[in-house]
């Protein structure tokens, strides 16, 4: 299984200190500040993993950050948890996703999201979870993710989830 294609000279790498984080500008201060100030430290503490999409000049075109967590079964929709134990349930977390302003509007975000979900699916073969969740930074982000079958968690309008069955379909290219 492989993710979507990017231009030939581009690459996806795990974030390290050599990547030019300070130059990244998505247009959302929270998204930018996470990459510039927190992503590497969080990764070093084994709390998250961040991957950067590098362009032909080794500039950061975009990035995403993944983690694992648990949510209480009562916070999830009944159709998702109807045959699951009544306890904390494992989930993958798409913690951050950003595309540099100079690359927005070209489908990079869509391909980067698909790549992150392929990573989630591959991780699920080792660490099982029932859904991928994310917290939207704003309404524009919420509309973006809802295009890809992410649904609102009841009672949490800015928290979305993608059930595992949908994740499988994305990872298989369906």
Can I get a quick summary?
The protein is an alpha+beta fold and 174 residues long. It has a single domain, classed as 3-Layer(aba) Sandwich (Aminopeptidase). It is 30% helix and 29% strand.
Essential attributes:
alpha+beta, 7 strands, 30% helix
CATH-assigned fold name: Aminopeptidase
- Discrete helix count: 5
What does the radius of gyration come to? 16 Å
Number of domains: 1
Poorly predicted ranges: none
CATH architecture: 3-Layer(aba) Sandwich
Q: How would the global form be characterised?
A: globular
H and E order: EHEEHEHEHEEH
Describe the structure.
This protein has 5 helices and 7 strands, in the order E-H-E-E-H-E-H-E-H-E-E-H. Helices cover 30% and strands 29% of the residues. With 174 residues, the protein is an alpha+beta fold. Helix 3 crosses helix 5. The chain has a single domain, classed as Gcn5-related N-acetyltransferase (GNAT) (Aminopeptidase). It starts with 10 loop residues before the first strand and ends with a helix. Strands 1-2-3-4-5-7-6 form a 7-stranded mixed beta sheet, sandwiched between helices.
SSE layout and pairing:
Blueprint: E1 11-14, H1 29-44, E2 49-54, E3 60-72, H2 78-81, E4 88-99, H3 108-124, E5 131-135, H4 139-146, E6 151-153, E7 156-163, H5 164-171
Parallel strand pairs: 4-5
Antiparallel strand pairs: 1-2, 2-3, 3-4, 5-7, 6-7
